[in-house]
């Protein structure tokens, strides 16, 4: 498909926007009027700049409150349209968007609207331009695509067609099924926007909180499917009004935008297969989402000094050193199925990360049936492949760069639990250590993100890794709100938690200022008996965040917890959450360098969340120290 | 009155909140449940800490979804209430808040609600505690205070009363007039909240966007008046859920909170005078709002080098040096009625500001009929008085500290246009300079504020200076949104513009990072012929931000501007705005050190705004350079 994006969707000057959009592989743009009005150059110059970058200018949107107006206003708007047609011809933009009238002056008469749009289309036709009519969700008399289509039909002019925007239809919960019956060649343009489900005025929602397909809660695939079933073959475009995107570096936004279209195309392609639709357009067809089965390792970036600190810490956590790397200053620690790698190799990727962010997680190793396919999927979805230097006889584990710069390695399942480590490390002793505390697996990894990274990560984990986001929660830190959202695969063997501090003053935000964001904030490790594990860890010297007695007094009034269990939790400082599916018992360690800490968790039954509602108890406790 | 505040209204740990609240002069707190649950100490210890700080714990709010429930849930909630009564007795809190039920399980039967609340009150009575019932705006069956009052009447228990919260009534546009008919002693507690008018779900509005009285758009004075007419004599409290306050330093929030109550009391006191109400409570009675009549001077903090740079700049702007200070390294420049002071005195307040913020405005001089009364008003409203060292025969101009640390001097009207300067300066030459460009007065001063300073400034300018806020606008900078709000006195002789960057990446935000916020961002000077003035300024060497030709092409299609005027504006780079009352022509200079710049403005007719919609043209132009 011809992929396009509205310039309002990105930050920067118009020229910077065009460069970012071209680099991300777009074919065209929709020109937002303010971008042109404030551009230091003529329409013809803009057309040349876009052309040089390989971009067409697909749409211009200068008209407001046009159709169904009293004669005087209509004549004035026609005159305005003529001046804008001048510009469109000079810049080479073929189509003008006219959105439905919101003015209190407008007259509720579809025939008048049709007649006035007919005249506009006739003027456009004289210059071989086209006009598309779009129903705004907050239009005064026309707010559904069905109403707009009736007016377009009545106007009956070959240079007038319909423009569809998924936001306007899905925000009103209107059924997109009727779109399939509209002749595809009368749909002149398609704008796709997703959005989180918010209970607010639709105009404010539309102007501030749209997002790229795959970042929100709308059934954008279902909408796009109907448009393709109609036989539409025009541009696939994004018009996203989002306060955060207005300030996000535009190169990242442009990549996210392209990824969202590729994801939308590939998901819709699968949907169209049943029942099969004759393909009138070519939809993106990437390798399938990889089957991932949990985290095999977590790698820390360190120098020699911090590697020694980490060694002490992880031993307190019940890990034992089981090997050193064949060719690098890298150490492997293990407990249960958990591998922690401490990388203090100079001149390495890890050292670069250490120098930029201090002691921090620099890579995750994900078990995967077909690592090459996983990398293929990722690069098709516009993630970057990363190849580390490899010594003799060592394994090359395919890796990609996650948003923010950390690596995700795909560890072949075929290697079994130990194959990778046998190949790359000189293993010293693989038995359980005397200090083993019963930690078994990596339950989840929580990332601390800057506000503008959340949508990027939701789309990355969905499109590249095939994870699905859960509920979005807001949690109170003593110094501001934290937004928290889990993402996981269907089997729940791979879980990440995306935490965003809305405040600059929380501990989460201060972690970000060290790491630059997109960094691991805490690591949750699972066990089968949290009381036994916590006791062993305490005996090893691990210190946990203390929890107020008041928490347990209140817990007893909220949830029917057996008194004996409550008493054990109170004594051990263990937090508790219950869902209809099961229970979650957990405890947080004190944080070390850079704010990173560990969580020990025990899932009982099919509990499927992260105890997020207990996070305020942790944050308040940390603040009181 | 007994002044109180809910702990949820401030950032920090519970102990930090109590200290900030006590220091700001509050008498008591409402304890938010999460603050207690996460507090490392017992209820009795909390009571002692509060007592030591001179604070009572006036209210505790642990119940949700209590009344009108099936028997099993009701019994369980009663048990929970008993445990919370234990805590209240231990901490010394006399009143429990029970807000109306939002649960889908609740039964729409006011008699059942009354009976269950009666039993709760009976349990409370056994311990000599009280229960207050409050209608939540989103309550399932009870959402108006009138409904809640009917239930309280029916329950008919001396330990059960009504709790009122202005947010719930005013957000639903319910009429508060009926409150006056409720017996004052059956109103157990009063929570006052203001809010901006937002088109969103009332629950989201309530949880994220409340503000202190005087910061929002509600008629909080009218609401409070009705409560006093009812004969209420209990606490006057603030329960403010606000995402920004959660991260604002709590000392500032506490001062804002106290100022808002003092303002509310003093405004309501005036309202109660007609028709007179027997005073059952003592309302705060500060000196009246000062009569201010415009800015007499703007003072810059500089060192010797930057004073020289400023000298060049202001001479290009048509100012001439007319004097030097009798005892300090301070220079006076003048044009029309505008005095610019450059303060390079070592060991001065200005030098402190210079060292912290670079070359920047450090003080404003406001003409005032009664400066001592103005300072009296300001200190009564919890602003700090500032006394500068004064040399022999120099005038002591009373001053206060504005939020963010700059000074506002009150210059006595009685001194005439020149009295202050004759006293403090050795005047050299007061004639118009050869470079005079026709600048006449200070039209307005625009401040760049951090997001958490906007509400502080709206309340400060309202309560201390008697200015009223205008419309709140959102403007698109290429790197994020700017929120802009003018505040002015009734005569429009004193105007400030409060600009907040919602993004960290705009030029406005970068100015903030230099100045720490609350700093002057640009200075608008008025003239009577902008074309003549601009031509002279250009001839003097002043450089203006260039405006795109596309702006003028578009202007002609939006507004009927006479072609000759349009052509002059295009040639001179002058921007244009038109309201029904008049026109605004303006032009921006390029910025100098620290991002500060000047605006030259001509008001035609009764135009009453600031040309804010043209700011994006400036911001886009600056970004393209």
UniProtKB/TrEMBL annotation, chains A, B:
| Pathway, per record | Aromatic compound metabolism; 3,4-dihydroxybenzoate biosynthesis
| EC number annotated for this UniProt entry | 4.2.1.118
Please report the stretch or stretches of sequence annotated as the VOC domain: 294-413, 441-590
One Pfam family from the record: Glyoxalase_5
Its family remark reads: Belongs to the bacterial two-domain DSD family.
Q: What's the protein called, per UniProt? A: 3-dehydroshikimate dehydratase
Q: Spell out the reaction equation it catalyses.
A: 3-dehydroshikimate = 3,4-dihydroxybenzoate + H2O
Question: What InterPro entries does this protein's entry cite?
Answer: DSD (IPR043700), Glyas_Bleomycin-R_OHBP_Dase (IPR029068), Glyas_Fos-R_dOase_dom (IPR004360), IolE/XylAMocC-like (IPR050312), VOC_core (IPR037523), Xyl_isomerase-like_sf (IPR036237), Xyl_isomerase-like_TIM-brl (IPR013022)
Q: Which residues bind Mg(2+)?
A: 444, 522, 599
Name the residues that bind a divalent metal cation. Answer: 134, 165, 191, 239
Classification via PROSITE patterns: VOC
| Function field | Catalyzes the conversion of 3-dehydroshikimate to protocatechuate (3,4-dihydroxybenzoate), a common intermediate of quinate and shikimate degradation pathways.
What is an example of a GO molecular function annotated in this UniProt entry?
3-dehydroshikimate dehydratase activity
Keywords per UniProt:
Dioxygenase, Lyase, Metal-binding, Oxidoreductase, Pyruvate
Q: What is the lineage of its organism?
A: Bacteria, Pseudomonadati, Pseudomonadota, Betaproteobacteria, Burkholderiales
Q: Which organism is it from?
A: Variovorax guangxiensis
Any one GO biological process: 3,4-dihydroxybenzoate biosynthetic process
Instruction: Name its co-factor(s).
Output: a divalent metal cation
């Amino acid at each position: 498909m011809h992929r396009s994006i509205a310039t309002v969707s990105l930050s920067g000057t118009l020229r910077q926007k065009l460069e970012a959009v071209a680099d991300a592989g777009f074919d065209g743009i929709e020109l937002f009027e303010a971008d042109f009005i404030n551009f230091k150059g003529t329409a013809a110059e803009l057309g040349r700049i876009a052309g040089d970058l390989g971009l067409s200018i697909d749409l211009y949107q200068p008209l407001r409150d046009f159709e169904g107006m009293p004669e005087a206003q209509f004549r004035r708007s026609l005159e305005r349209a003529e001046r804008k047609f001048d510009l469109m011809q000079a810049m080479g933009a073929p189509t003008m968007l006219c959105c439905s009238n919101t003015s209190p002056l407008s007259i509720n008469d579809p025939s008048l609207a049709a007649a006035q749009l007919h005249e506009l289309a006739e003027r456009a036709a004289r210059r071989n331009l086209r006009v598309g009519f779009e129903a705004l969700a907050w239009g005064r008399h026309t707010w559904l695509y069905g109403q707009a289509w009736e007016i377009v039909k009545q106007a009956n002019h070959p240079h007038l067609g319909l423009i569809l925007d998924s936001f306007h239809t899905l925000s009103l919960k209107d059924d997109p099924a009727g779109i399939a019956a509209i002749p595809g060649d009368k749909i002149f343009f398609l704008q796709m926007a997703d959005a989180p489900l918010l209970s607010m005025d639709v105009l404010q929602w539309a102007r501030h909180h749209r997002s790229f397909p795959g970042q929100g809660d709308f059934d954008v695939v279902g909408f796009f499917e109907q448009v393709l079933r109609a036989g539409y073959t025009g541009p696939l475009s994004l018009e996203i009004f989002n306060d955060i995107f207005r300030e996000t570096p535009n190169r990242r936004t442009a990549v996210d935008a392209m990824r969202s279209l590729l994801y939308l195309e590939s998901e819709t392609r699968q949907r169209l297969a049943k029942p099969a639709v004759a393909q009138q357009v070519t939809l993106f067809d990437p390798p399938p989402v990889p089957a991932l089965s949990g985290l095999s390792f977590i790698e820390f970036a360190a120098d020699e000094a911090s590697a020694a600190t980490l060694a002490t810490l992880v031993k307190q956590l019940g890990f034992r050193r089981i090997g050193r790397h064949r060719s690098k200053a890298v150490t492997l620690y293990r407990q249960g199925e958990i591998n922690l790698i401490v990388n203090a190799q100079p001149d390495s990727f890890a050292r670069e990360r250490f120098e930029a962010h201090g002691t921090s997680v620099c890579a995750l190793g994900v078990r995967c049936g077909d690592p090459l396919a996983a990398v293929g999927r990722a690069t098709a979805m516009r993630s970057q492949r990363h190849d580390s230097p490899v010594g003799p006889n060592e394994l090359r584990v395919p890796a990609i760069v996650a948003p923010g710069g950390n690596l995700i390695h795909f560890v072949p399942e075929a290697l079994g639990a130990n194959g990778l480590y046998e190949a790359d490390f000189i293993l010293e002793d693989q038995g359980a250590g005397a200090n083993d505390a019963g930690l078994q697996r990596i339950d989840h990894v929580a990332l601390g993100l800057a506000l503008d990274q959340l949508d990027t990560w939701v789309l990355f984990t969905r499109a590249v890794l095939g994870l699905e986001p859960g509920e979005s929660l807001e949690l109170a830190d003593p110094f501001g709100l934290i937004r928290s959202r889990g993402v996981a695969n269907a089997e729940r063997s791979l879980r990440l938690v995306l935490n965003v501090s809305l405040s600059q003053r929380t501990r989460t935000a201060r972690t970000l200022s060290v790491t630059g964001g997109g960094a691991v904030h805490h690591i949750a490790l699972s066990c089968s008996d949290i009381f036994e594990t916590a006791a062993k860890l305490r005996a090893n010297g691990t210190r946990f965040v203390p929890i107020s007695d008041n928490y347990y007094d209140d817990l007893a009034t909220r949830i029917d917890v057996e008194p004996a269990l409550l008493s054990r939790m109170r004594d051990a400082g263990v937090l508790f959450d219950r869902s209809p599916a099961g229970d979650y018992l957990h405890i947080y360690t004190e944080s070390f360098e850079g704010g990173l800490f560990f969580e020990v968790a025990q899932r009982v039954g099919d509990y499927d969340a992260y105890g997020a509602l207990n996070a305020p108890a942790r944050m308040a406790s940390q603040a009181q120290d």
